[in-house]
Task: inverse folding
């Protein structure tokens, strides 16, 4: 398979410091994620990040890394990664999705108050947007004003899945 081929080649060593090598490593990490190999994906993203890729790739690698940690169930490390992302890239188009994921991880760690503050921040920072529209029902559920929607899996790296904000932890956070 293509993924096995990527695994057999040390792209960063062979094509050191090229954009193509960094993109190939990013692709490898995304494929590992999509195959459910979350720990391997996180490791590959971390290698890419530590290898100092082109600045344009860093937000994608950082988001993918945090998503892979979350999907692997390492919510504490995912919180650290998502917090770092929103602080480092406040103006990125990926930031709202990182806020959603951060709130979801807070809920998974039974940190309901921090999740509520994060959803409130989404509503404040992104008024009249899909982000606000997606955050408000979750906030209402967390505040006990409406029943929460059914749970859905987290979004894959680089995608928006507003329903992913409805984590099973919402039901248990009351």
Result:
């Amino acid at each position: 398979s293509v993924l096995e081929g990527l695994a057999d080649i040390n792209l960063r060593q062979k094509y050191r410091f090229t954009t193509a090598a960094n993109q190939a490593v990013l692709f490898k990490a995304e494929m590992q994620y999509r195959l459910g190999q979350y720990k391997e994906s996180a490791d590959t993203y971390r290698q890419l990040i530590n290898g100092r890729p082109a600045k344009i790739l860093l937000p994608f690698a950082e988001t993918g890394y945090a998503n892979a940690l979350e999907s692997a169930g390492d919510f504490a490390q995912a919180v650290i990664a998502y917090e770092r992302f929103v602080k480092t890239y406040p103006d990125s188009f990926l930031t709202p999705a990182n806020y959603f994921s951060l709130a979801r991880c807070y809920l998974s760690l039974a940190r309901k108050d921090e999740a509520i503050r994060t959803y409130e921040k989404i509503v404040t920072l992104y008024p009249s947007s899909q982000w606000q529209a997606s955050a408000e029902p979750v906030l209402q559920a967390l505040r006990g004003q409406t029943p929460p929607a059914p749970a859905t899996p987290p979004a894959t790296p680089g995608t928006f899945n507003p329903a992913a904000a409805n984590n099973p932890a919402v039901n248990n956070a009351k």
